[in-house]
Amino acid sequence: MRVWFITGASRGFGALMTKEALAAGDAVVATARNPETVTDAIGSHPNLLPVALDVTDEAQAQDAAAAAVKKFGRIDILVNNAGFGLLGAVEEATTDEIEKMYATNVFGLLKVTRAVLPYMRKQRSGHVLNFSSIGGYVGHAGWGVYCSTKFAVEGISESMAPEVAPLGIKVTVVEPGFFRTDFLAGNSLVVSPPTIPDYVDTPAGAMREIAKQANHAQPGDPAKLAGGIIAIVNSPNPPLRMPFGSDTVAAIEAKNAHVAEELAAWRELAMSTDFPKDVASAA
Q: Which of the residues 132, 133, 148, 157 is marked catalytic?
């Protein structure tokens, strides 16, 4: 029996992954700001431990990890799923909005990860899954600040993977596209007021209407993603990055092609900034 530690487990992907893990015979420490919401969503189960956790509270993260180990003896899989979105042009986002988003999406992820890794290091095994987004690989107008938090998650994960690999710990970045969850609804999305008229007729302004139309009409099936997470943790060689959704695959392929084309066009200038080889050798 593996032991999961899932943040944001009361709804959306978090609740679905909790149900999948329990159905697979595993134990789950399901965290949420209010643990009663986990019980409301999942019900009672002998292998389920709902725990109160505000990921922005480092002491509470430490306590939650300790409670998990006290109950089940170990933590095998950490899923950093908690987070929310921010829609609006970069210039329109307020300092308060930006700081709150980073406090959850980046600093919260780090606090929980630092609370759990000591147990994984001690047992010389574990798997950390950090929820990013297609917005963590490809930036989009209207989502700049949100994308920046997910770019941070990608960088943290990619750097941490070789750090913990010698200790028996695996890392996977999960990159969902548009899935039919409540992400575009008010309980998961903050919308900056359209305070700057110049952006109304730009892609950033258009994205506000696109998001309204896409809410609960997204192409991705959340239940299938939850099943995909089980497949990842069951794999002896899980990927560093795992995109989910046809829209995500298309966006990654388009960005990779664009980057390769742009690099080819500017390669000569890029390569011209080194010292001459003889000077570099002398230094």
A: 132
